[in-house]
Amino acid sequence: MRATYMYGPGDVRVIDVPDPVLQQPTDAVVRVVRSCICGSDLHPYHNLPATPGGKTMGHEFIGVVEDVGREVRTLRKGDFVIAPFAWSDGTCDFCREDVQTSCRHGGFWNANGVGGCQAEAVRVPQADGTLVKVEGGADPALLPSLLTLSDVYGTGYHAALKGGVSARTTVTVIGDGAVGLLAVLAAKQFGAERIILMGRHKDRTDLGVEFGATEVVAERGPEGIAKVRELTGGDGTHVVLEAVGHLPAYEQALGVVRPGGVISRVGVPQYDEAPIGFGTLFLPNITLTGGPAPARAYIERLLPAVLDGTVNPGKVFDRTIALDDAPGGYRAMDERTALKVLIAS
To answer: For residues 214 and 194, is the Cβ–Cβ distance under 8 A?
Structure first.
């Protein structure tokens, strides 16, 4: 089969590899129908050390079950499924507490012998706990939106949930990538009436306004902080959803959060140290929360509105490519000429 591998910074190749096969009785093999490139994939695209054997890529996919192990009970060949970006058994204490990203018997794609999803097929460990079946299959028009449930829609939802967004809170969203825009959508779903989106790409922030942003602040750094403070009478907002992951975005969040407020981080942090001391979090009673979204916990919660067309999170995909064109898809996202690239396998 064909699969995407990365060999170092900027070095993405689509190569021939053996087809995945069942290795454990709890496995399934899924033929990938749609996958995509994530903003977090750009971190290794910039920084991956030279890797002669290559590294598999991709952690978001939807597809059709081709084979199941003898202990798989809830799935059969031909089922259309959504896969979250972490696999999990669905039965351990952390899974029962909806923290599937910490599953005692789970893990992440592209690690520990489990391949990536920017490929024609994937072996799925713990298939019963991981995969969510879409009853009756899927309308082709809904495939992009269904794919967002694998990661970015669930991650935006996680940001708003952990931030405590409600009708009583004002919200700032930092970042106009797919996660930031879907954090806007989620904040609107949680009832926020005022959502300030901090982003500088007009085509993206226009989509953010469609999703529910009430104001857009294009300025960054001190100027951006001053603008949000001006819009909020000097106070800042009750909740800040940080969807970037770089230190300047975190510092911006500190600058625009209201005393007693919450910063919810879902952008993968690209730093090891950040201000959390007396003057930044302690004195103003700021809560810092967030983390990798347990997308598996949210798929069934968010799926009905996708299926009935109430929401269309798939609008974050603005380019569709074939699998063999994955290197160009990475370049487009890195150059900001594409918001999020969908791969049609």
So the answer is: yes
- Whether residue 283 contacts residue 251, with contact meaning beta carbons closer than 8 Å, is answered with no
pTM above threshold 0.90: yes
Q: How far is CA 174 from the centre of its chain?
A: 15
Sign of the CA dihedral with 169 first, then 174, 179, and 182 last:
positive
Alpha helices in the chain (DSSP H): 42-47, 93-96, 127-130, 143-148, 152-163, 178-189, 202-211, 221-231, 247-256, 295-307, 326-334
How many other C-beta atoms lie within 10 A of the C-beta of residue 244? 25
Task: Classify the phi-psi angles of 191: left when phi > 0, otherwise alpha if psi is within -120 to 50, otherwise beta.
Answer: left
Residue segments in the chain with a per-residue pLDDT below the cut of 70: none
pLDDT at 257: 98
Q: Which of 275, 252, 293 is nearest to 38 (CA)?
A: 293
Would you state the pLDDT for residue 269? 87
For residue 119, which of 21, 14, 272 has the smallest C-alpha distance? 14
| Distance from C-alpha of 66 to C-alpha of 21, rounded to nearest angstrom | 10
Interval 251-277: pLDDT, tens? 999 999 999 999 999 998 888 888 888
Q: Are 195 and 216 in contact (CB under 8 A)?
A: no
Please check whether residue 153 is in contact with residue 172, taking contact to mean a CB–CB distance below 8 angstroms: no
The structural domains of the chain, ordered by start, are 2-151+294-344 (3.90.180.10), 156-290 (3.40.50.720)
Q: How far is CA 95 from the centre of its chain?
A: 19
